[in-house]
Write a structure and sequence with these properties.
- The complex is a heterodimer of chains A (329) and B (460).
- Chain A has 329 residues and is an alpha/beta fold.
- Chain A is 47% helix and 14% strand.
- Chain A is built from twelve helices and eight strands.
- Chain A has helices at residues 13-18, 45-55, 70-82, 99-118, 126-146, 152-165, 199-206, 229-234, 236-244, 257-269, 284-296, 310-328; strands spanning 3-6, 22-25, 60-66, 87-90, 184-190, 209-216, 274-280, 301-306.
- Chain A has a four-stranded parallel beta sheet with strand order 2-1-3-4, with helices on both faces. A four-stranded parallel beta sheet of chain A has the order 6-5-7-8, with helices on both faces.
- In chain A, helix 11 links the parallel strand 7 and strand 8 (301-306).
- The longest helix of chain A has 21 residues, at 126-146.
- In chain A, 50% of the residues are buried.
- Chain B is an alpha/beta fold and 460 residues long.
- Chain B has a domain at 66-237: Rossmann fold (3-Layer(aba) Sandwich), CATH 3.40.50.11890.
- Chain B has 17 helices and twelve strands.
- Chain B has helices at residues 10-22, 54-64, 66-75, 90-94, 111-114, 121-127, 139-146, 165-176, 209-230, 236-262, 270-282, 287-307, 329-336, 361-370, 378-392, 408-423, 440-458, and strands spanning 7-8, 50-51, 79-84, 100-103, 155-161, 182-186, 198-200, 206-208, 317-322, 339-345, 396-401, 427-431.
- In chain B, the strands form four sheets. In chain B, strands 4-3-5-6 form a four-stranded parallel beta sheet. In chain B, strands 10-9-11-12 form a four-stranded parallel beta sheet. Chain B has a two-stranded antiparallel ribbon with strand order 1-2.
- The chains are: A alpha/beta (329), B alpha/beta (460).
Chain lengths: 329, 460
């Protein structure tokens, strides 16, 4: 089945799958100077890696980029000029409290549907869409339930695999129960992760900590809400919109108060004692939240800025995490 | 025409001001010697060179007294609206009311330059976690917290969506500090799909009708907020009158740009033209006076063009400039290097295009908001730049990066590629921080290289 690649949490995988195409929310492997696009001063390393990952993509028939951040919006400009893969730019409104913004999101889904049809997809019936949504919802529930019994890294990898492959290819062994880690409970907060950086979970564990809340974009914070059964039955597209656009908290939203409401509850529920704030160099959206988070949270915050130089980072990040955990002992 | 055109220093301007006074040249109530602004801390003024006309003096004094006007407006019982990011749309609405005054807190981005980093605003931004990896507009945070550069407005309105991340993030930081902000959405302007109803926007871009309708609904929300603040309704008649006034400013600027960019001998320096163009966005808190200031400049320029006098040599390299400079001195530097400005895109070409007057006014404003070069693709912006380069006969393109600005990482390269492919002219990308003193030799070399390249190409 042809794959449609994307990275934004506001792109509903169910909508792509219901059109008969394979949604694949990608997580770039590494940062740095690999790929056709050279490193550019001021360019977010994640956006840089995303562009290169898409340009190297061999199995996809299309790419979806959203307007969630300005740099990603401009990544679309690069992809349309330098990449043969058909590309779609989806307007994801930053405001979220108005009916007009919600309607625009639904209209954009319909427009996305027309793009998918041009790529060989078929327009889904409500029943098909509801069935796909149900399958995804069940898979998400099982991942969330298994979360308590997986190591932080396994949990992140399981979600990443689900994002990439959907519910059908999830091996059951990934959800096997692991011994509980009794390390200092920490949260990790920030934008999307790359595969290479999942080692941060190991570093934390080896240093005496345990990530009990993964609030990065590629983990549970970037998952949509559970679907309402009545909504699935009555109007699945509207329910899809509610669960994604109406529920995923993010730093890019204006206002982004829902992110803090979500964090408040999760940090308390999981008895978090410290926060690792992970941000990419040149990512203004998350960077600007660092100061506010420090003012807002009554917890110590460790700022980990991620640039394109993985060698320096490889030495610096473990040392900083160790020092942070020593302080929390 | 007041005298032989020339560029003079601040000290020379003081002497000239006395001459003008003795000659009985009338001054507006905000007039006076320019050097008095240095006492307020605007020390960069000491290092700039200015046009020597009375019209230019009026322009500078008008610009540098905006804060006084805002305080006076409040004292007179008028309400202040801080409009952020949209660069030209909301002020048209606000100035349609008699008792509202709109201004851009974004304008604080020039304070670090004008006060040569002595304002302390960037230090405040640093302390709030907004460091130098952000665009210099971060100075706005400090301006809000100190309250020293503009009065805190009664209403803050900010456009988000297809905007730069820097500004959106900084505005959100401000919001997190307790400043209420009314956010409105400007979507990324896309090309209409086949069979989709399209609208031709002012300036030549097109957009789907549905996007215009969406923006209209957003502007209607802002209109309601302004009505609540003003305590009066803004009916179509009043808003149409407001658009007409805004168009008066735009028409004056269009004529000014046409003459200045195309007359063989440059009749007005780049620095004054930059300041004049900025007036289109917010009218410097006095729309009526903006018109008077621009009329005076236009008269001066027409007289100079008619007399065949101006600045620089007739063979100055004709440069199209993209993005405003964080350091005003760079406009002088370009001229020192033998270049002149013949066309600009300072991020707000949509505020220079005439707003349609044959449409329902909110529809017209929506079209104008969507015509913003920054809300569309870099390719769209490059098309507009290419067309304007042809219109004004520019021979080279300089893309001036704004340090830390989210749009500058990728768009400059794309714009450069497209313009080079279409027009075959030299393209150079430079970065201009708020103070360029330490990098001036490098900047000078790059600008001189552009000028030399242009002159060499003429010989072919």
């Amino acid at each position: 089945m042809k794959a449609i690649v994307y990275s934004c949490p506001y792109v509903p995988a169910e909508w792509i799958a219901a059109h008969g195409l394979r949604p694949s929310r990608i997580m770039p492997a590494t940062l740095g100077a690999t790929g056709p696009l050279a490193i550019v001063e001021g360019l977010c390393p994640y956006v840089h890696s995303f562009i290169n990952e898409v340009m190297a993509e061999k199995c996809a028939c299309g790419v979806i980029v959203t307007t969630l951040c300005d740099q990603m919006r401009r990544a679309f400009d690069v992809l349309t000029r330098r990449c043969d893969l058909p590309a779609f730019l989806m307007n994801v409104p930053h405001t979220w409290q108005t009916i007009a913004a919600q309607k625009m999101y639904v209209d954009e889904l319909r427009r996305l549907g027309r793009f998918l049809i041009r790529l060989g997809g078929k327009p889904p019936s409500d029943q098909t869409l509801a069935e796909v949504m149900f399958a995804y919802d069940s898979a998400r529930k099982s991942i969330l339930e298994a979360g308590n019994n997986l190591s932080a890294r396994q949990y992140a990898e399981t979600i990443a695999a689900f994002n990439r492959d959907g519910p059908s290819n999830m091996p059951n062994k990934q959800l096997s129960i692991q011994p509980l880690n009794a390390g200092i409970p920490l949260a990790i907060i920030g934008g999307p992760m790359i595969k290479q950086d999942l080692e941060i979970f190991d570093i934390v564990e080896q240093s005496g900590g345990n990530i009990v809340l993964d609030a990065t974009e590629t983990s549970e914070r970037g998952m949509c809400a559970t679907f309402d059964r009545r909504g699935l039955r009555d109007n699945p597209l509207m329910e899809l919109s509610r669960a994604y656009f109406g529920s995923i908290p993010d730093a890019s939203r204006r206002p982004n108060s829902e992110l803090y409401n979500w964090l408040k509850q999760k940090l308390a529920d999981r008895a978090v004692r410290g926060i690792i704030f992970r941000r990419y160099l040149w990512c203004d959206t998350w960077h600007a939240e660092l100061g506010r988070l420090k003012d807002w949270a009554s917890l110590p915050v460790l700022d980990i800025d991620v640039g394109g130089d993985s060698r320096t980072q490889h030495i610096r990040t473990p040392n900083r995490i160790r020092a942070f955990l020593e302080m929390l002992q | 025409m007041t005298d032989t055109p020339g560029q003079i220093t601040l000290q020379q301007w003081d002497k000239r001001f006395q001459q003008l006074q003795r000659a009985g040249v009338p001054q507006p109530n905000y007039g006076g010697p320019l050097s008095r602004h240095v006492e307020d801390g605007d020390t960069r003024l000491l290092k700039l060179r200015y046009d020597n006309s009375a019209a230019a003096l009026r322009l500078w004094n008008f610009l540098l007294t905006e804060e006084d006007r805002l305080h006076k407006a409040r004292a007179d019982g008028r309400k202040l609206v801080g409009t952020m990011k949209d660069l030209g749309t909301i002020p048209v609405m606000a100035y349609s009311f008699d008792n509202l005054v709109a201004f851009y807190p974004d304008g604080a981005w020039w304070i670090p330059c004008v006060m040569e980093l002595n304002s302390g605003l960037l230090n405040i931004a640093d302390k709030l976690g907004i460091d130098e990896s952000f665009c210099p507009v971060r100075a706005m945070l400090g301006a809000f917290l100190t309250g020293a550069h503009f009065p805190i407005p009664e209403l803050l309105v900010c456009s988000v969506g297809a905007t730069c991340d820097d500004f959106s993030a900084i505005a959100q930081r401000l919001n997190g500090l307790g400043y209420a902000i009314l956010w409105w959405e400007i979507p990324h302007r896309r090309h209409p799909e086949p069979n989709e109803e399209a609208v031709k926007l002012p300036g030549g871009f097109s957009a789907p009708k549905s996007q215009v309708e969406f923006v209209k609904s957003e502007l209607a929300r802002i209109k309601t907020a302004l009505e609540d603040l003003a305590g009066e309704d803004l009916d179509e008649k009043k808003l149409s009158a407001g658009i007409k006034k805004a168009n008066q400013v735009r028409l004056l600027l269009a004529e000014l740009r046409q003459i200045v960019f195309t007359t063989p001998l440059c009749p007005l320096p780049a620095l004054e033209m930059l300041i004049a163009e900025m007036l289109a966005i917010h009218f410097c808190s006095d729309q009526k006076e903006t018109i008077a200031v621009l009329q005076a400049l236009l008269e001066e320029v027409k007289a100079r063009a008619k007399a065949g006098v101006g600045f620089l040599s007739a063979d100055a390299a004709r440069i199209f400039w993209v993005n405003p400079v964080a350091d005003l001195q760079v406009m002088n530097l370009l001229e020192d290097c033998g270049g002149r400005i013949c066309g600009t895109d300072y991020l707000f070409t949509h505020a220079l295009d005439i707003i349609p007057q044959d449409l329902p006014p909110l529809e017209a404003l929506s079209q104008m908001a969507l015509a913003d070069p920054m809300v569309g693709s870099s390719a769209d912006r490059a098309s507009r730049i290419s067309a304007d380069i042809n219109t004004f006969g520019a021979e080279a393109l300089i893309i001036s990066r704004i340090p830390g600005a989210s749009h500058c990482a990728l768009e400059g390269k794309i714009i450069g590629e497209i313009v080079r492919d279409r027009l075959g002219i030299p393209v150079v990308e430079i970065e201009v921080p708020p103070l360029t003193d330490s990098i001036q030799p490098t900047l000078r070399t790059r600008l001189e290289a552009v000028v030399e390249t242009v002159r060499e190409r003429r010989k072919r």
